[in-house]
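Page 47, continued from p. 46.
Same chain as before, 759 aa.
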Amino acid sequence: MGTVPFLLNQLRPPGKGGAALTQAAASIALSQGQPQTIVDVLHGRAFRYYAEGLRQYLAIRTGSTERADHYLSKLRAFVAKTDSNDLIQAPGVRARLYRAARGYLHNQSRPHEPPTQQVLEELPWRALPSAHLSASPLNALRFDLSTEDSELLELRHARELSIEELAFVYGKTPREIEDRIDSAMAQVHAILDEHGVRDADRFGRVIIEAFALETAPRARDDAHEGIEPLPNGTIVGGRYSIEARVGLGAFGDVYRAKDTEVPGHVVALKLLHQAAHSKSAKQSALRELRLIASVFHPSIVQFKDHGWFEERLWFVMPWYDGETLESRLQREPLGRGEALEIFQPLARALAAMHAAGVRHQDVKPENIFLARIPGFGHDEVTPVLLDLGVAATEAEMVVAGTPTYFAPEVAAQFASVERKPTVSNKADVFALALSLRNALEPETQEDVAAGAVDTFIEQRSRETPNAPTRKGLRYLTPFFDRWMSRDAELRPTADELAEELSALSLPEERKERVKTILRWTIPMALALLGASGAAVTVFYQQAETQREMAQRAKLTASGLRQDLADTREIAEQLELRYEQSRLTRTELAKRLARTDGKVASLKTQLKDEERRLTRTREKLAQNRQEKATIEQHLSETERDLSATERTLAATNQRLATTGHKLAAEEERAKRLERKLEREGERRLELQGEIAALDARLAAEASKTEELQDAVARAVAARSRAELELEFAEEELEAVRKRSAPHSPEPESNPSVDEPTPDS
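Result:
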């Protein structure tokens, strides 16, 4: 599973329309200070979040992983061309994706036929789960149910769709879906009861595992799909030439780039996806950079330069040759010695982060890089923590990470548990300890069955992973029980974890102590035992001689008593010799007793010397370990000091450059101020001229109005004159007519000869 950020104060029950993905998008957007981008972030992550569950659903429904990949590519195109706002409309992204997938299966020109049991049996079903000891209940659910009931139960339990989502997918009412699920579950109860599974709490888990295929390995190009990389040769920041894209995270691409100003120097350049158009957006984009800059440790990635490219933040980090721990574990597990060399520096790096008030929040093998630094030896690696894109300060209410590496208190934020503990730096300790366990025993690493993330999170909130079980690692069980405790308060701090990780080398230390003790004590014991053995041998030889003499004396006395009973003097002499022999034997016994006492005393002294020697050796080993630790601390301090000096020199150089730029900007500002003063004076002059022009314009306007009045009067006078002229012309015409010659009329008509007074 990829990184899935969440937000603490925006929780909804799991399975409600893809709440986890919505919370993830909200967390990403808010952590960048751009709430308006939630829809776009959600759109960009929707397909990747549900891709594995969709792939398994399509494979089971078609009986072919190849056909599933074919339909999956269609779904990818569907997401790409669908508007973000349409995609997230209720009942949510997940429901729309499964409805589209089901549509591809049922609405083609040639609808697919349900696969036969033989075809289904050839699918890569997940390995036997831990919930039960037999695969028969799983096979019964896979092959004995009807196709309709099987699909409905798979979508409900294995793909975790809610009733509302299922109603949308099937185009039915929630009530109809509930009735169909109840009917299907009745058959499930009967099937599982036949196979001896009667625990109701296990039914949901068994159904999930019944429809779980092996997770498909993620192709390298899949992570980059849909995001165009910068062309090779692109110059960023005026000096970094892009050579290739090498990685893609939640927020940005990582490129291998060549520093054109330093020949032969290669760097890692991270370019964020989101452009920052406003000042606040730019400050938010600098978040990861500020977190990286706030912590210095050789095992934490450092930044060297930064800037803006097409309004997207870029920053430069050292280029490390090597591989991630995840890639390393694909070959073989880590040995305890190698694990100690890798994880102890990482624990100290986390301690440095926590001391600076920063939580990493996404510690996992994928984010641990095993760097091979020139000059440190071919086999020497320096572990480096990568990707602070979801890191948070102690004051931030953001919880992020990868579900399979969630601490129980992190999982509890999204589970249905009543008590939601506070998330602290101990969550990083849990994730690092779990990464160590998976590095020692990769086969025990948990996965999310059937892509059912919500169910996995529910389980993690209540249970913790087991300690390593392989022979040679079982002695670490008490340590892992503490490091991965469900109660965060019982876990050590990162500093304490760094010290306690020395438990990885306990068997070798014990063997070395035993060898050292034996190397010193065996020769001494042999010498002491040799000396005491020689003395005892002499004493025993003397005692044996005396016992033999006494035995012979007894035999002689017995024979003499029988043969020479009447010779009293001889008998008395023999008795005297016997008594002397007896006294000698008693003395020898006493001497033997004293010798035994001396031997016992020597043995006691030897044991005391062995104990003192053991304590001395243990103290010597402890002193050597402390010396090694001090030397390592000194070496790290020297490296830190050297790096700090280099950073300080670079900072001083940048400060000097910035000072020169600031001086130039100040001089420029002064010139601008003088220019502004001159412009101000000129502006005042222009304002005076404008005022004069306004006055002249007002005067001209007044004159214009007077001229317009005069013109109006002239036009009126002209009109009257024209009328008068017209009347005059008419009268003249009339006169002309009257004065023109005409035929005589009778004299009795006076109007012809004399004009009237009106004329």
